[in-house]
Amino acid sequence: MSTSTSGSHSHASVPTNDSRSVSIRHHDNPSDFLFAVSPSLTLQNETSAVVILAHAQKRIAGPKPRDFWLTVWSTSSTTSRSALELILMCGSWLLGDYPIFIWAPPKAERRSDATSSLVEFLRKRVPDKRVFSVFGPTDITQVFSSEWSKVTGVPILREPYYDAYLARCTKNTLRQGTSTMPLPQGHKTRVATTGDLNDVAELCKQFADDESAPYNFSAEDSRLEAQELIRAQQVWVYEASSGVIACICAAARHSQRASVISKVYTSKAFRRKGFAERLVRHVVQHLFSNRRESVVLYVGKNNPARRVYDRVGFSGIGDQANSSDDHEDWLEVGFNVAITGRW
């Protein structure tokens, strides 16, 4: 594998066994990365890769020197056209490192030469211990993780950290449901304010305790996260009577046409009242009104909240998927090393 460097990215050629050539590019500039990949992404691909693209969008305003993206391209000898095959992100945030995020176009051919070369390329840029987990579409995550373990000798943990569906909602699939009915008297759905900090931080902590294993969030971690979400106006609340915050929903990741909602959590005292459904629908409608064409969430395969998201209009949730095109399995695989981050 030969390597050259130009501007904000380096480039490596990968030997192959067929008529196509494969190359890997290293991007340490988020604008450079987005410029390189955007022409190759349909809306469906953008919603699938949004967790990676959104981080690059955020880093344009606040770059971090350790963050980078790797892209894998194949070029046909007959057409000389390059096709995007893989994206890998090594990023960080307020509370430490992210897992390694990886993405490949759904249903694309998986090339073992590209994956093994990507592993080799990544090892030259980070220590083995930095890769404490990998998150991405299940098939490419399994292939990459197996190759990483084989090359590094670091064992894969038997149980995955997260086994999930990627669910999508568009204006066409959005269901009005209870939104046509007025909220109970004194109830509100709204953006959180600084006056909600204690309540939002507590619900963030409860969410982490219930949903974020193996990552440990202290009360101070959750407060810092809540402060940042409120400052950026990226968390919404369902306010029940007497001003009690019953439910939260965050939307902190945005690409050009897609957004991710996360951290949907209802206090145990207010469950089975329809509050989460109302809040999620409110946030989705807000995102659509701000020029987003698709809203994405990741939901655990055993998470009973799947029913809530189905009622809002999210497709691709396992048995409730409308077609094979809706269905996308995502997986986070852990390695037997110390965890240096969280998310």
UniProtKB/TrEMBL annotation:
Source species: Pleurotus eryngii
SUPFAM superfamilies linked: Acyl-CoA N-acyltransferases (Nat) (SSF55729)
Molecular-function GO terms, alphabetical: acyltransferase activity, transferring groups other than amino-acyl groups
Domain N-acetyltransferase: 187-342
Bias kind Low complexity: ranges: 1-13
InterPro entries noted in UniProt: Acyl_CoA_acyltransferase, Bact_Acetyltransf, GCN5-like_dom, GNAT_dom
Region (Disordered) location: 1-23
Name of this chain's protein: N-acetyltransferase domain-containing protein
Keywords, alphabetical: Acyltransferase, Transferase
